[in-house]
Each structure stands twice: as structure tokens, then as C-alpha cells.
């Protein structure tokens, strides 16, 4: 059995996920949403800003790379692009051009190491445990392998 096959064995029957827009993954303790140059350009263009202006207003440089900024609200750290509709549902104000790190949630390496890791993250991400859209194992692997480094 190859290492990849061993790694993926527990989700061979596929996984289900559908975002409920609770916003839990866009807030909480301080965190990082890393983005690369291409993603910076896409977000800046979407906001009709120069890239440097985009970085100055919405990002910070940490550990040698760029991450989206955060806004502290009621003791929690919201992604700088998190908005809420009237019902409290989370909305991303750069959704069409959001970074790959956001696009690939919850199919991140740390969630896919084991069923236990998946279930642990599902405690705060209701989209991971309430049925939702079915992702066959092959599709999960493709998303997993398209992940940037999320650590
Ligand atoms: S925590 Fe899960 S369900 Fe909630 S907004 Fe994020 S992806 Fe969607």
C-alpha cells in the first residue's frame, strides 16, 4: 500500500460538506490566511486597488509571508473581509477571489489525517457533520493536493 493510499484510507467512501455560513472559520483566535502574489493581485483588482494599497489596508506580513488582516470584535478576531447579513450569516466580501486556503477548507491536510482529526474540526464547523454535498475520495484528494501550506 502506498503512503498516499494509507493516508487516504479512512475517507475512501467519500466525505460530505456544505458550508452553513456560520462564520466560525473566519473568526475566533488570531490566525492566518496566507496568500501569494497572484492572489494579492486578484483581490486588489477585485477591490479596485493597487496591490501595495491592498496590502497596507487589508494584510499583514508575518513570518516572511503575507496573511489577511483581522479585526478584533467582542474578543474574537474576524477576518478583515468577514461580513454578516441581517440574519447573522457570514459573507465573504472578496468571495470570488478568496485565497486558495479558504477555497480548500475543510479538505486541509490536518483535517484529513484521520477520522478523529476530521471529527475534531467538525465540532466548530457544522458544515462538516450535517450531510451536505458528497465529495468522492478522488475529489477530496484533488482538493487536498491543491492546498497551499496551511500551517
Ligand atoms: S465553519 Fe464551516 S460551516 Fe461555518 S462558515 Fe466555516 S466552512 Fe462554513
Q: What would you note in describing this structure?
A:
By secondary structure, this protein is an alpha+beta fold. The protein has one domain. 32% of the residues lie in helices and 19% in strands. The protein has helices at 3-8, 37-46, 51-58, 100-103, 109-112, 115-122, 137-145, and strands spanning 15-17, 59-62, 65-68, 70-73, 76-79, 82-84, 90-92, 133-135. The mean pLDDT is 92. The structure holds iron/sulfur cluster (SF4). Iron/sulfur cluster (SF4) is lined by residues 19-25, 90, 105, 125-127.
- Helix amount, in percent? 25-40%
Query: Averaging pLDDT over every residue, what do you get?
Result: 92
Which overall shape is indicated by the principal axes computed on the Cα atoms? globular
* Count of individual helical segments: 7
For the CA atoms, what is the radius of gyration? 16 Å
Percentage of β-strand residues: 15-25%
Amino acid at each position: 500500500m502506498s503512503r498516499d493510499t494509507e493516508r487516504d484510507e479512512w475517507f475512501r467512501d467519500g466525505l460530505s460538506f456544505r458550508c452553513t455560513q456560520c462564520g466560525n472559520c473566519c473568526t475566533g483566535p488570531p490566525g492566518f490566511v496566507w496568500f501569494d502574489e497572484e492572489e494579492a493581485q486578484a483581490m486588489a483588482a477585485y477591490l479596485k486597488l493597487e496591490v501595495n494599497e491592498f496590502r497596507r489596508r487589508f494584510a499583514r506580513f508575518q513570518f516572511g509571508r503575507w496573511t489577511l488582516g483581522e479585526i478584533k470584535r467582542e474578543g474574537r478576531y474576524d477576518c478583515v473581509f468577514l461580513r454578516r447579513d441581517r440574519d447573522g450569516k457570514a459573507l465573504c466580501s472578496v468571495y470570488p477571489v478568496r485565497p486558495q486556503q479558504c477555497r480548500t477548507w475543510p479538505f486541509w491536510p490536518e483535517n484529513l489525517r484521520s477520522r478523529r482529526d476530521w471529527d475534531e474540526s467538525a465540532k466548530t464547523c457544522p458544515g462538516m457533520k450535517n450531510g451536505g454535498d458528497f465529495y468522492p475520495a478522488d475529489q477530496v484528494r484533488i482538493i487536498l493536493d491543491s492546498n497551499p501550506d496551511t500551517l
